[in-house]
Design brief:
By secondary structure, the chain is mainly α. Helices cover about 55% and strands about 10% of the residues.
């Protein structure tokens, strides 16, 4: 299912983009159908009907389909190959938990998703909980105090709950982690780390920072080795100084 990718860079991603709540059942079905060989155009039409039946308002339903399409059906040109490898890994039965694939594609394709995930991950690491107001404040510091930023941030947070990465607590707008899922398969871990790396404007980061990235808070990739990443055709590993390895997009 490999396709030629158009020339697109991380800087070409929409600033907001992810401004709808995506149910886990929808994205799971999109990936499952792609893994079965269904063309993206057919998957889009099928999911358009499913979403239209569950989302109030034709405009809201259409915008939801667009967000899902940017994730799996028509990702930015430079992420088509990343999407195709995710589908191949899924076809090979690499994991029974497709969340790792949804998370990676969302990180790489939607800068707002990455910013929200990173802010939530940092707060969870610091205090064990995170609130919507705290995350919104951090996003507004980066993107400005605009209503669209606040609304989209809420939608991403509710998506994280829908995907099982965060749990609601007794207090509205306060979230706790659902627990980190261990990613022990080396090829899957390398794919996820590559997706996180593609979310970085520079396309490079220290290995130690990547495996501890707050944006990957729902997963434990601590068992990943530098050699696992060096074995990937899509990544390069360089040594800086005596002990620090830097990973870059090949």
């Amino acid at each position: 299912m490999r396709s030629a990718a158009a020339s697109t860079t991380q800087r070409d991603r929409p600033e907001i983009g992810f401004d709808r709540v995506l149910k886990l059942a929808w994205v799971d079905r999109a990936l499952a159908l792609l893994a079965q060989g269904s063309p993206p155009t057919e998957v889009r039409e099928l999911l358009r009907d499913v979403i239209a039946a569950e989302v109030s308002g034709a405009d809201a339903a259409q915008k939801t389909v667009c967000v899902l399409s940017g994730l799996w059906l028509a990702p930015p040109g430079d992420l088509v190959e990343l999407r195709d490898r995710a589908v191949e890994l899924r076809q090979g039965g690499t994991t029974d938990t497709p969340l790792v694939f949804h998370w990676g594609m969302a990180l790489a394709g939607y800068p707002l998703f990455r910013k929200v995930a990173e802010a939530a991950g940092r707060l969870l690491r610091l205090q064990g909980l995170c609130s919507a107001s705290q995350v919104q404040r951090r996003l507004q510091e980066q993107l400005g105090e605009r209503q669209i930023v606040s609304r989209a941030t809420r939608h991403v947070l509710r998506t994280l709950v829908a995907w099982g990465a965060l749990n609601d607590t007794h207090e509205r707008g306060l979230y706790e982690p659902a627990g980190a899922r261990s990613v022990d398969d080396s090829s899957l871990a390398a794919w996820l780390i590559e997706a996180a790396l593609r979310a970085e404007t520079s396309g490079r980061a220290r290995f130690s920072g990547l495996i501890r990235s707050p944006a990957l808070f729902p997963f434990d990739v601590s068992n990943t080795r530098v050699a696992d990443l060096a074995a990937s055709d899509s990544l390069e590993v360089h040594r800086e100084g005596l002990r620090e390895e830097v990973v870059a997009i090949a």
